[in-house]
UniProtKB/TrEMBL annotation:
A GO-annotated cellular component: cytosol
Domain Alpha-D-phosphohexomutase alpha/beta/alpha: 14-150, 190-293, 302-414
Taxonomic path: Bacteria, Pseudomonadati, Pseudomonadota, Betaproteobacteria, Nitrosomonadales
Species assigned in the record: Methylotenera mobilis (strain JLW8 / ATCC BAA-1282 / DSM 17540)
EC identifiers of the protein: 5.4.2.2
Name of the top EC class for this enzyme: isomerase
Recorded family membership: Belongs to the phosphohexose mutase family.
Protein name according to UniProt: phosphoglucomutase (alpha-D-glucose-1,6-bisphosphate-dependent)
Residues in coiled coil: none
């Protein structure tokens, strides 16, 4: 193998967002674009001898080509082995598991997550460190800095490698006596084994055999093969209980984002009145998000986290209890109420799974979750869509209650944190920035102001002080907190690729069980009006309605 040092010019836009670098496919196809980013990453990491790298993606357009480039660059940058998911496919949680199980140096996941795929869609790349979790900001900041001054990258002259056949291919290394190995692994079995070690598969199997009807929607994305192995082969579900389980490069032309808007096919099935099934779930492009539905019933991700925490001891892996919980700042405080009752700590972090890693490594938290349809535990260092689905099935199998009954009982015990998120997607960046600037300009005048039945207590831009490594992350979202504990959060998304996406998160606590049945949009109507009044969003962006409401 020869190493070729190739001159390159820097790009100025390779700043990783909430979760890696995400751009339109066409941007990634620019000359040396991927290579520059990968080299900046390798230079940041300082690769030790005998380092092993995991590589896989969600199967979207450009995945296979990018994997070949990364293999060739890994060989030229000191890695001695690369583990590839068969066919270049690895879900994000499976990649995290493989990194941990095989104690590798780290891994690259090629995905733009829930963003659309195909030639006109998005592509992405993120790096996970040796604990299996997303690279922390100190790494991604340095990668960005290096990408702005890069002048060359190193690549080897390897031929195209077979990434479809399980087994090893060896190449003579650049240095004599050294070999470089590409190992294609069956990550589906590894992941399914992990799930089987955590949950009560016998109880779930009995539930599924008892006439309980479910539908899992893989949205033409990466979890299809995992779902077939787990639900059909290991849990005895009928193949009818799966939909859209063949991964495709453009996700069947859909938007692999498991929410009420984009998972409309599943939503129709689950909100079909008397004909609705007992349980529905969906996951996203790279398999780390989940949406849970009951019969004609939507479970908000914030409530899902709280219910899982409250019922954790029903699951074999957590039967001895959980150490603590963590949620991102915009996620509702429902899980905090559970933590208080269990007498365990509850942490509030910025948006981004990377902020949970230190807490999990330090053993301070077991379950984590985000309002953005992510929940998981310390079994990996990523959010995990299928894990959440299995957790719910395990809880239902033990409690023998419907999803709605579980939620209603939960609210009766803890009260309900009524919650909704309104997204305004693809707004011109300047308009979005002017909305944020306008709210910030009222930081000193808003406290004490009365809006209908709400009085503002304080407003700030959220900062996080990591209790484990002492790092500080500023500007993590604007909070308008009201005296009764309700709140509005405004935040610009870090995962969009077109203009800016402005998110408004709304939360109000409702202790009165007579009002627990109310639709969140009805219960939060006054707060929605206040959010628009404070932000002047309609006036500044011309948008009269959100793109997505969850
Ligand atoms: C990513 C991160 C999550 C984050 C989400 C939303 O999810 O992994 O931790 O909550 O983005 O981020 P934003 O609000 O900035 O768009 P995913 O599923 O896209 O990788």
């Amino acid at each position: 193998m020869k190493i070729i040092v190739t001159p390159s010019q820097p790009y100025s836009d390779q700043k990783p967002g909430t979760s890696g670098l995400r751009k339109k496919v066409k941007i990634f196809q620019q000359e040396h674009y991927l290579e520059n980013f990968v080299q900046s990453l390798f230079d940041t990491l300082v690769v030790p001898n005998d380092a092993v790298l995991v590589v896989g993606g969600d199967g979207r357009y450009h995945n296979r080509q990018a994997i070949q480039t990364i293999i060739s660059m890994a060989a030229a940058n000191g890695f001695t082995r690369v583990l590839i998911g068969q066919g270049g496919i690895l879900s994000t949680p499976a990649a995290s598991h493989v990194i941990r199980k095989y104690k590798t140096f780290g891994g690259m996941v090629l995905s733009a997550s829930h963003n659309q795929g195909g030639i006109h869609g998005d592509f992405g790349i993120k790096y996970n460190i040796g604990n299996g979790g997303p690279a922390p900001e100190k790494i991604t900041d340095e990668v960005f800095a290096k990408s702005k001054v890069i002048a060359e990258y190193k690549i080897s002259d390897l031929p195209l490698v077979d990434i479809d056949t399980i087994g090893e291919t060896q190449f003579a290394g650049a240095v004599s006596d050294q070999t470089f190995t590409v190992q294609v692994i069956d990550a589906v079995q590894d992941y399914a084994d992990l799930m089987q070690s955590l949950f009560d598969f016998k109880a779930i199997r009995q539930l599924l055999a008892s006439g309980f009807e479910m539908k899992f929607d893989a949205m033409h994305a990466v979890t299809g093969p995992y779902a077939k192995e787990i639900f059909v082969n290991r849990l005895g579900a009928s193949t009818d209980s799966l939909m859209n389980c063949e991964p495709s490069e453009d996700f069947g032309g859909g938007h692999p984002d498991p929410n009420l808007t984009y998972a409309e096919e599943l939503v129709k099935i689950m909100f079909a009145g008397e004909n609705a099934l007992d349980f529905g779930a969906a996951s996203d492009g790279d398999g780390d998000r989940n949406m849970i539905l009951g019969q004609n019933f939507f479970v908000t991700p914030s409530d899902s986290l709280a219910v899982l925490a409250a019922n954790a001891t029903l699951v074999p892996a957590y039967k001895n209890g959980i150490a603590g919980v963590a949620r991102s700042m915009p996620t509702s405080g429902a899980v905090d109420r559970v933590a208080a009752k269990l007498n365990i700590p509850s942490f509030e972090t910025p948006t981004g799974w990377k902020f949970f890693g230190n807490l999990m490594d330090a053993g301070q938290v077991t379950l984590c979750g985000e309002e953005s349809f992510g929940t998981s535990s310390s079994h990996v260092r990523e959010k995990d869509g299928l894990w959440a689905v299995l957790f719910w099935l395990n809880v239902i199998a033990v409690k023998q209650m419907s999803v709605e009954a579980i939620l209603k009982a939960h609210w009766l015990e803890y009260g309900r944190n009524v919650y909704s998120r309104h997204d305004y997607e693809a707004i011109p960046t300047e308009a979005a920035n002017s909305v944020i600037a306008h709210i910030k300009s009222q930081f000193s005048s808003l406290p004490g102001q009365v809006f209908g039945s709400y009085t503002v207590k304080l407003c700030d831009d959220f900062s996080y002080h990591d209790p484990i490594d002492g790092s500080v992350s500023n500007n993590q979202g604007i909070r308008v907190l009201f005296t009764d504990g309700s709140r509005i959060v405004f935040r610009l998304s870090g995962t969009g690729t077109e203009g800016a996406t402005l998110r408004i998160y709304l939360e109000a606590y409702e202790p009165d069980s007579a009002k627990h049945h109310l639709d969140a949009q009805v219960a939060l109507a006054e707060m929605i009006r206040i959010a628009l009044q404070i932000s002047q969003l309609v006036e500044k962006t011309g948008r009269v309605a959100p793109t997505v409401i969850t």
